[in-house]
Amino acid sequence: MSSKEFYTNLPASPKHFVDIVEQEHGVPLPDSWHIIVTDVEDSSAQLEHYQQVNILAASSVVSVLNIVESHQLQIPFIYGGDGATLCVPEETLAECLATLHALKSHAWNQFKVILRVGHVQISDVRARGHEVSVEKFRVNQAYTQAIFFGTGTYFAERHVKDDTTTQMYNGPLAVSLDLHGLECKWSEIHPPLHTEEVIALIIQSTETKNSQSVYTKILRDLDTIYGNFEQRHPVDHAQLTPTKDLRTILYASRIKFGKIKWNYIFYWSLRGFFGPLKQKFQYMFRLGKYKHLEISADLMTASDTLKVSGNLMTIFAGTHEMRKKFFQILDDMESLGIIYYGHSISKTAVMTCYIDRGNSTHINFLDGFGGGYSRAALELKAKTKQAKK
To answer: Model confidence at 14, in pLDDT bands (50, 70, 90)?
Structure first.
């Protein structure tokens, strides 16, 4: 087996997410692989345009997935709301960078947004004293998700953002930007009826050598107070409908096609109008290439609501009373200097993008309304900055 097939052939763990995190180790990525980091520059200043930021971050994932899948490969990645971290084999690096820099040009031409794109080789990460390993977690039959261990991905993210030389690229751009499978036109989604709010949360452990134990404790407290994955899931699939917001549909058209495509806009405007009506009206529009958009409970759980990559990121729903109990625990840990955290509270969630990977494989990227993860990151950044003074 060549190293490029490392993640493709890595078996998915049947364990629960928290049990995988608790084991505190993964399978080391090959030295020849590269960590690619994408990041929307100054995203915290663009919260009123959070749809643009989210769509660009998701597009960076989709464009790379389409390349590696053309080689019949799988890769581990993390979507972060305003960017993504993806690990790719060396054999696909040139193609991935070409398409991402085409997306970077696209982002500037369409939205006047700067998308950082950089990479660092795993062997260089290890030479700097950081490890990066991964486990493949099966969320459900439609979706497997990467869980990263070690400080390697966090180092790569900081290295790319701080060192502009990692963003240099002199190769050819992709002839065309392949974003097939990407759909980003959904209304706000109210959480299940037994809940009152949606929380986007980012936690950074100050104990880098013991971070997995810290995150395990927090996840077990989260389970105790909010319930398991299904019980605290922020999306009720029955409430998911296409958006009526013309601006969101225009964003989707411009990023996907590089222009305003009127038949596309007309189609999704009609879906937005009929979406809230009875189920039978929705079936009228499940035609042609859009038949894969049928909504199911299994599809909705194919979501990255919980992820570990240096930091712990999660989005969940609950009540005000639950939040008081859980955040008291976080505040106590923060006062002891064990963690820093940032959070955002909203009344609704947003399914930023739906990705159809074919063969009944789907991925949903979720965020809190108004850029939940970006707002959480802003609070976390302020806390860590204050701690350094």
So the answer is: confident
Task: Provide CB contacts within 8 A for 356, sequence distance 6+.
Answer: 181, 183, 292, 293, 362
In the Cβ-directed half-sphere of 128, how many Cα atoms lie within 13 Å? 16
In DSSP terms, 119 is beta-bridged to 36
Q: Read off the pLDDT of each residue in 66-84 and give the average, rounded to a whole number.
A: 92
Q: What are the helix (H) ranges across the chain?
A: 17-22, 50-70, 90-111, 122-127, 152-162, 211-226, 246-257, 262-274, 279-283, 297-300, 320-335, 372-387
pLDDT at position 294 over 70: no
pLDDT in tens, 233-247: 887 766 665 666 666
Kindly state the percentage of the chain with pLDDT values over 70: 81
In this structure, how many other beta carbons lie within 10 angstroms of the beta carbon of residue 388? 5
C-alpha 177 chain-centroid distance: 20
92 Cβ neighbours under 8 A, 6+ residues apart = 4, 67, 68, 71, 73
How many residues are there in the chain? 389
CB 88 within 8 A of CB 7: no
pLDDT value of position 63: 93
Structure tokens of 314?
A: 């999660």
What is the pTM assigned to this prediction? 0.84
Computed on alpha carbons and rounded to an integer, the radius of gyration of the chain in Å comes to 20
| DSSP3 helix / strand / coil % (the chain, rounded to 5) | 45, 25, 30
For tokens 């005000």, the residue is 320
Strands 12-13 and 133-140: parallel
32 phi, psi to nearest 5 deg: -80, -15
Nearest CA among 197, 148, 252, 201 for reference residue 374? 201
Is 153 within 8 Å of 28 (Cβ atoms)? no
Phi and psi angles of residue 276, each rounded to the nearest 5 degrees, phi first: -75, -10
* Ramachandran assignment for 72, one of left (phi > 0), alpha (psi -120 to 50 degrees), beta (any other): left
| Model pLDDT for residues 157-191, shown as the tens digit of each residue | 989 888 888 888 888 888 788 888 777 666 677 88
